[in-house]
Amino acid sequence: MKSTASLFRALLTVSLLAGCSSYRPAPAAFHKMLDQPYRLGAGDRVRVTVFEQEGLTNVYSVDQSGYLSIPLVGAVPARGHTAQQLEGEIADKLRQGYLRDPDVSVEIDRYRPIFIMGEVGAAGQYSYVPGLTVQKAIAIAGGFSPRANQESVDITRDINGKVMTGRVATSDPLLPGDTVYVRERLF
């Protein structure tokens, strides 16, 4: 009887602790972001081509405050803009006394990095490439450690200015700027 009561208390304690875990399924916005056009952020690098204006054609980085610094026009807001929107912004600024009809093209030269933490071979910052999944990113980081939970991981993602964390399968795609956390398994 005494051992049954202590077993019951132990099971109750374990179930209460499991209920207090930080399990957060991925919000619906995680997957909606995959179908939307890519929006620039700090750490992205873009190639701006202004046709017949070699002095303006160059590679520019989005700074921490979300701006590109372009000769003649100065700071151009880039954070939250698509490449096509940025083309329009730059062309509008160039029309204001510099060029009559500027033809501007913007393409992404380098995406902002992803970060991998937790139970992997080599945690750290890694370059993002289009088509990267959680599983591929973990392989780049040296694979799972022997203690890793290999079923799902936690991803922290900036969604429309809000930082959200959710649990996803290892087959899910990543976006630039994501932070992947591989948890330790219980047994």
Automatic annotation (TrEMBL):
InterPro entries in UniProt: Poly_export, Poly_export_N, Soluble_ligand-bd
PROSITE patterns found in the cross-reference section: PROKAR_LIPOPROTEIN
Molecular function in Gene Ontology: polysaccharide transmembrane transporter activity
Domain Soluble ligand binding: 114-164
Family matches, as Pfam families: Poly_export, SLBB
Signal peptide, first to last residue: 1-18
Keywords: Signal
PANTHER family in the record: POLYSACCHARIDE EXPORT PROTEIN GFCE-RELATED (PTHR33619:SF3)
Protein's name in the database: Sugar ABC transporter substrate-binding protein
Organismal lineage: Bacteria, Pseudomonadati, Pseudomonadota, Alphaproteobacteria, Hyphomicrobiales
